[in-house]
Specification:
Elements (H helix, E strand, L loop, with lengths): L3 E7 L8 E3 L2 E4 L3 E2 L12 H6 L9 E5 H9 L13 E4 L11 E4 L3 E8 L5 H5 L3 H5 E3 L5 E3 L3 E7 L1 E3 L5 E4 L12
Parallel strand pairs: 5-6
Antiparallel strand pairs: 1-2, 1-6, 3-4, 3-12, 5-11, 7-8, 7-13, 8-11, 9-10
Length: about 180
């Protein structure tokens, strides 16, 4: 199956959702041009409150389109940009990628995957009960996070719906994704 970008989204202000765009420009070492979460240091409010000098390992948020189908089947209406992601993909299992995977988006842009998104209670403000759909527990008690992956931009470029997504795995041993 070919992996593709199905939507791109951004928002210049801190808001839960992001508006869909015809394209977004990724800036090396910063994130999505004009997005509230772009920057070298953390931009998420809770992390800024803890230590505003922390490196921003959450410059860009990617979610797999397949999650929206799963959520619709559970009775929720969620689409691209609704959960605050910048890039929506299809045909790639983002959640199973190891730390350091390079995602080539389109012809130029490259994102290094840093970890899993850890959704907060705002997701239940958006739609009640949604948090339990994207965060759960496996039989052994392990926390399962399904709300996408975070990354940093290692090569800038324009990204559009329809662009190819190619994963380049890091050298082994692979480190599984954890919340970031």
């Amino acid at each position: 199956m070919n992996s593709t970008v199905t939507a791109v989204s951004s928002n210049a202000v801190h808001s839960f959702t992001k508006s869909n765009r015809e394209s977004v420009t990724l800036l090396t070492g910063l994130g999505v041009e004009g997005d509230a979460h772009a920057g070298v240091t953390v931009k998420h409010r809770s992390r800024v409150a803890q230590d505003p000098t922390q490196p921003n390992l959450r410059q860009i948020h990617l979610i797999h389109q397949e999650l929206f189908t799963e959520l619709r089947d559970a009775g929720f209406e969620v689409g691209p940009g609704d959960l605050g992601e910048n890039v929506t993909t299809s045909g790639i299992d983002l959640l199973s990628l190891p730390v350091g995977t390079l995602l080539h988006l389109g012809d130029e842009a490259v994102v290094a995957v840093t970890g899993l998104r850890n959704p907060c209670l705002q997701i239940d403000v958006f739609q009640g009960g949604l948090l339990k759909q994207v965060v759960g527990r496996a039989g052994d008690g392990t926390v399962i996070r399904k709300a996408g992956v975070m990354g940093v931009v290692t090569a800038g470029g324009v990204v559009r719906p329809g662009d190819a997504v190619k994963a380049e795995l890091p050298a082994e041993p692979h480190q599984p994704l954890e919340r970031v």
